[in-house]
Amino acid sequence: MKTVFMGSPDFAVPSLEKLYKMGFDIAGVVTQPDRPKGRGKKLLPTPVKIFAQSAGLKIFQPEKIKTPEFIRLLRNLSPQVIVVVAFGQLLSPELLQIPQFGCINVHASLLPKYRGAAPIHRAVINGEKVTGVTTMYMDEGLDTGDMILSQELPVEKQDTVGMVHDRLAVLGAEVLERTLQLVDDGEAPRQKQQDSSATYAPLLTKADEIINWHSSAREICNHIRGMNPWPGTCTYLDGQVIKIWQATYGKRLVDAIGLPGQVMASDAGGIIIQAGQDQVCIKELQLQCCKRMMTADFLRGKQIPEGRCLGD
User: Could you tell me which residue ranges the Formyl transferase C-terminal domain spans (predicted)?
Assistant: First the structure.
């Protein structure tokens, strides 16, 4: 089957690699343009571009895919199917109509839950015990197309969003392989989504990074897991940003109850913070312009006095 692949970040690479190893006729790989990154603002390619270059695939990097020029180019490639995995731009109705077998998307949730741009983050932040991937025929809506296949993935209590992301990327490639085999055989199912059951996973904002100490300790720890390793959660002390990377929680970790955000105790085992319900034990944190540190190492250089309130 002649295919065009559209994707950009790390999550999309296993799917492209799967197509390549399956021997698909990949007519082109469409990915986002190189962007300036890091302190030096050096132009860097997307992970998908890096793999495509290593595989000798033809690469296209349009700023916008809705232009007549790009649609003409894509039409000339004559793909039978377009595979879209975390591409980063919405496809126009005109583009959706080009391939014979449609545009197939790999989405990192069990649709119709978590439609949108940040399904993995939101699932972990919300404390989901199960997430998964769904393949679907794309339409003009945001992750609203008819579903083809889905598969669940358990989320463990200590999983970070990075861990779940990596497992879902591999699972997505496996589900994509089965999906394309069904499409090629003319046996792919189509199941309409139940819009009444839909939930949404909007892009993360700076406000999402800030810990709300009035939340329960469980919610705070889920929040921390759901933002590790990117973009991280933070709190404030004396106007200074402190990033929190790892924490546990318990009903009463010390024999006292304080105000939300109040430091109850600190030692090499962790910094105990009162939450709106129960208590949080910070295990790993980071000051601005410093590296991530376990609490024992952090406390050798800086003390956070008991009784102080984080978030000030």
Answer: 204-302
Distance CA 153, CA 119 (A): 13
* Domains observed in the chain: 2-201 (3.40.50.170), 206-309 (3.10.25.10)
Euclidean distance between CA atoms 279 and 163, whole angstroms: 25
- Can you tell me whether residue 212 is helix, strand or coil? coil
Directed axis angle between helix 161-184 and helix 13-22, to 10°?
30
- DSSP assignment of 86-99 equals S-SSPPPHHHHTSS
Half-sphere exposure at residue 263, Cβ-oriented, CA atoms within 13 angstroms: 19
Q: Show binding-site residues for (6S)-5,6,7,8-tetrahydrofolate.
A: 109-112
Structure confidence by residue, pLDDT tens digits, 238-261: 889 999 999 999 998 999 999 999
Q: What is the dihedral of CA 103, 104, 107, 113, to 10 degrees?
A: 80
